[in-house]
Amino acid sequence: MWIDTHCHLDAHEFGADSLAVAGRAAEQGVSMIVIPAVERGNFDVVAALAHAAPNASYALGIHPIYVPQARDEDLALLRTAVEAALGDPRFVAIGEIGLDFFIPMLCEPAMREKQERFFREQLRIARDFDLPVLTHVRRSQDQVLKHLRQIAPPGGIAHAFNGSEQQAQSFIKLGMHLGFGGAMTFTRALQIRRLAAGLPLDRIVLETDAPDISPSWIHPARNSPEQLPAIGAALAGLRGVDPAEISAAAWRSSLAALPRLAALVAE
To answer: What is the pTM assigned to this prediction?
Structure first.
């Protein structure tokens, strides 16, 4: 059995196919898909989709790419939405939140400041409600680590990790898990593959980030949670172990990173 810890199943690329995709993933052994929100406009959408698909759960947050158009009152709305969702067993985390210093517009001084302000406030929400975080860390590992040290949530996942060994160890020391997916299936991704092969297995979780970050065998086609078992097999190949060992280890790591999932997958 597998858990896809990060999948934008509500994305427009899936169209009306989201539930069918989730169903096909379940047939492949993907027992749970975590769907993160990206802005206030899809808080209700991800929650509804998680309730419509038997093998889905959701997170609430404001993605750094959506920060430019976000308003300060969106943070208050998020806090209210999170408090209301605490009684929903399919709600598992705060996310997707973080920092993106790859897109030029987001690197402008005023926008960097706004990103960091939104990230810090969302970390406070996670800390206040004792919830893990799904963090976006594109070219921002050290800055994300700085804020995690200052406003420590109870763990979570550094999504699509692509940092150094030292940065990976810093996330682990802060109680975070590291998300690996399609990127490690490319032979040219030497650093990611070295980390996937060598980091403690109990700190690795698997993800697709579908519809993005397609694995090498379908790139550049739309990614899907159906690909997660093959991604797990790729990790098994890098580590020289049986895919069943990766499945079991990633399952345990996912539940450690996102404790509210435990009750769902036990149903």
So the answer is: 0.97
